[in-house]
Design goal:
Layout (H helix, E strand, L loop, with lengths): L1 E6 L2 H11 L6 E6 L4 H4 L1 E2 L7 H10 L4 E4 L2 H5 L2 H7 L4 E2 L3 H8 L1 H11 L6 E4 L2 H9 L5 E5 L8 E4 L2 H13 L10 E5 L4 E10 L3 E9 L2 E3 L3 E4 L4 E4 L6 H21 L5 E11 L2 E8 L6 H5 L7 H9 L14 E9 L15 H5 L4 E5 L2 E4 L2 E4 L3 E9 L2 H13 L6 E2 L13 H4 L1
Parallel strand pairs: 1-2, 1-4, 2-3, 4-5
Antiparallel strand pairs: 6-9, 7-8, 7-9, 10-11, 10-15, 11-14, 12-13, 14-17, 15-16, 17-21, 17-22, 18-21, 19-20
Helix pairs in contact: 7-10, 8-9
This protein binds adenosine monophosphate (AMP) and glycine (GLY).
Length: about 425
């Protein structure tokens, strides 16, 4: 089969790497890809935002399956465009992608289905939102309704911060139309957990649990990022949580979508807060997580390709996934300044030295090759994953690998999965 992976991050490198291992895959294209995907397939210089060009490429090259990595093309309707041309693509349609692309749509669906989530108010008028803040109990979480590159969620500790956030989002349109409407909700306390599910419209198959590290700096300090590291399995997830999660979150969600005439087919993952009263939904994502995917796929023993196909063909109920019971820890190496302004074009060295370590996998994100030399080309540059018998073991291995990789002003967190070192996988399974 000819497969096209859309996107250019660590998630897409991990997807291409895993799909390459399938006995059914003949050729892998990545659009636009990075220096890592160029080593396992062919990079096509089409940005993920150029939907028409992607359709044309898939048609002309008789691509059998397209896998869409990022949320933006899904929200823009890439899967609908492919379907109109009778091209197979893995991912939800535009209307189904609203579960991520509109926080208000997701919140209203959760309310209708009584899915446990933060208490929230919805505003389409800034004076009403400002008035609400006069009597709100702080802190509150303020969210732009639409996609804002992961930057549209602000925890406001006091009225002044809330006022300026509302002003920026709704009046100055810092995130464009994404901030035309906002959600103001209560702060949930607890620890976060990502549960990925392959959803075929009616049924779903859960992947192993994972935890992301969203803040830029050690000790969960600094600004929110796309994700600075991940590990799997999550130490705050266990079998006892799974049955209520399925009964109170997954099943009602799919029922609610179907009731609204929406068949979600693709990867859906709720970001959860595990509170003292049980899991609460923070958000829904309509695609694989980054960097969770870089921790999950090295643990997946099964072939990913038939799983994606079964999702599209509404047969996920006939599938099972075999997992490596070892733990995976993923550390993201970023350019100094990320998630703000950063410099690119720095030479990267030591990758071969790190890659030869046993059970270590290096996924590229913002990298490119120039005159044969590997250079940084993005905020998140690499994601390094190691497997280990315990989280502690995987941590040691991953940081050994990370210490061998160099580029100027490389920034990474030293505490990925540190909160889980006491836990071991026997206890979790
Ligand atoms: P979201 O895009 O809604 O998941 O928000 C991004 C991040 O903001 C989440 O991963 C959490 O770390 C944080 N967050 C969002 N909503 C809440 C909430 N109600 N309480 C506490 N933290 C939140
Ligand atoms: N890891 C967070 C995300 O992919 O949105």
């Amino acid at each position: 089969m000819k497969i096209l992976v859309i996107g250019s991050g660590g998630r897409e490198h991990a997807l291409a790497w895993k799909l390459r291992q399938s006995s059914h895959s003949e050729r892998i294209f990545c659009a636009p890809g990075n220096a890592g995907t160029a080593e396992i397939g062919e990079n096509i210089p089409i940005p993920a935002s150029d939907l028409e060009a992607l359709v044309r490429f898939a048609k002309e090259n008789r691509v059998d399956l397209t896998v869409v990595g990022p949320d933006d093309p899904l929200a823009a309707g890439i899967v609908d465009l492919f379907a109109a041309e009778k091209l197979r693509a893995f991912g939800p349609t535009k209307s189904a992608a609203r579960i991520e692309a509109s926080k208000i749509f997701a919140k209203e669906l959760m309310r209708a289905q009584k899915i446990p989530t933060a208490e929230a108010s919805i505003f389409s008028n800034s004076s009403e939102a400002l008035r609400y803040c006069e009597r709100a109990k702080f802190p509150v979480v303020i969210k732009a309704d639409g996609l804002a590159l992961g930057k549209g969620v602000i925890v406001a500790a006091d009225t002044a911060t809330a006022r300026s956030t509302i002003e920026e989002m709704m009046n100055q349109r810092r995130f464009g139309n994404a901030g035309r409407r906002i959600v103001i909700e209560e702060v949930l306390r607890g620890t976060e957990c990502s549960l990925h599910a392959l959803v075929d419209g009616k049924n779903y198959l859960l992947l192993e649990s994972a935890r992301d590290h969203k803040r830029a700096l050690d000790g969960d300090q600094g600004p929110n990022t796309g994700g600075m590291g991940a590990f799997s399995p999550a130490n705050n997830w266990n079998r006892k949580l799974q049955a209520p999660f399925e009964a109170e979150i997954m099943r009602p969600l799919l029922r609610g979508l179907l009731r609204g005439g929406i068949q979600f087919r693709g990867l859906l993952y709720p970001g959860l807060m595990i509170t003292s009263e049980g899991p609460r939904v923070l958000e829904f994502n309509c695609r694989f997580g980054d960097p969770e995917t870089q921790a999950l796929l090295p643990r997946m023993k099964s072939d990913l390709l038939p799983l994606l196909e079964a999702t599209i063909d509404r047969k996920i109920d006939t599938c099972a996934i075999e997992w490596d019971m070892r733990a995976a820890v993923t550390v993201v190496l970023a350019s100094a300044g990320y998630p703000g302004k950063y410099e690119a074009g720095k030479s990267i060295s030591g990758l071969e030295n790190a890659a030869k370590l046993e059970d270590v996998q290096i996924f590229h994100a913002g990298t490119r090759r120039a005159a044969g030399e590997l250079k940084t080309a993005g905020g998140r540059v690499l994601a390094v994953t190691a497997l280990g018998l315990t989280i502690e073991d995987a941590r040691e291995r991953v940081y050994d690998a990370v210490s061998r990789i160099h580029f100027e002003n490389c920034q990474y967190r030293r505490d990925i999965a540190l909160s889980a070192v006491a836990a071991n996988i026997e206890k979790l399974s």
